[in-house]
Amino acid sequence: MATLVQIKDGSAGIRLRIDKPQFRIGRATENEISIDDELVSKTHAVIEAMPLDERASLDYYIQDQASTNGTFVNDARVDLHKLSNGDVIRIGMSNFRFLDDTNDDPAETAQLHKTWIPGVFVTKPKKKKTTRKKTK
What we know:
Oligomer: single chain
Strand content: over 45%
């Protein structure tokens, strides 16, 4: 399932699961994400989940709803855009990172490791296998 993570001051904030076929973003309170920002239209953009195949895989698209100030993905203004894992969506003064773990390979799932700081975990990059040449 896909998630939007609000980005504030360079760090991650609120996580919002995209759990409907249409996920509306705008200033109006009836949207799934309501943003209190004068730069945001009442119904600013819609994220749609489109079935990719019978394995329940989904592609996600964001579509601007003829907003005054536009919808941006990775700093490019878009009308309709297929979202990819890690894309940054900007609506008004709000930034969201799009995360899609639906089509990920479970073997590639990162492992969390505890640090010496209470409550802090990190991921470690996978070690590359190296082959050693035998010398005679």
